[in-house]
Specification:
60s Ribosomal Protein L30, Chain: A, two-stranded antiparallel ribbon, alpha+beta
Length: 136
């Protein structure tokens, strides 16, 4: 594996994952992004809507990555914390559309964890990220 490539890890006898990778190997500068919620630069939630919060949380991740000269294609892992499993399941298609608008068709390793609540009142989703930016 060269310094400028990612290797998506998928055991040959497993069914293909839906919208994520089972594993990613990468070399380069590691960037760790704290959990992002759906709030604006002013610290205000953009909406009470679950999908709108997802889209903004992802956009916030992209903005943090840009500070490290990174792009969505450098993401190796996303961990999602959601307060309502039913909202996530019911709106998966819309979430996927929002994801592709912000991240594109790049699907790193992902985990989803259902939590009793998040620190910020009204927050329905928090997403943390890991990225690896190839060496120049």
């Amino acid at each position: 594996m060269s310094k400028n490539t990612f290797e998506f890890l998928q055991p040959k006898n497993w069914l293909p994952p839906k919208g994520y990778s089972n594993g990613v190997a990468a070399e380069g500068r590691q960037v760790f992004v704290a959990g992002q919620i759906g709030w604006s630069e002013r610290g205000e939630l953009v909406s009470d809507d679950f999908v709108a919060q997802v889209e903004r949380a992802l956009a916030n991740i992209v903005q943090v990555l840009a500070e490290a000269r990174g792009e969505p294609r450098h993401l190796t892992r996303l961990t999602w914390f959601v307060t309502e499993k039913s909202a996530y399941v019911a709106r998966q298609k819309e979430i996927g559309e929002a994801y592709r608008r912000v991240i594109g068709r790049h699907f790193p390793a992902m985990s989803l964890i259902v939590v009793a609540g998040l620190l910020e009142p009204g927050a329905k989703v928090e997403i943390e990220a890991t990225a690896v930016i190839p060496a120049e």
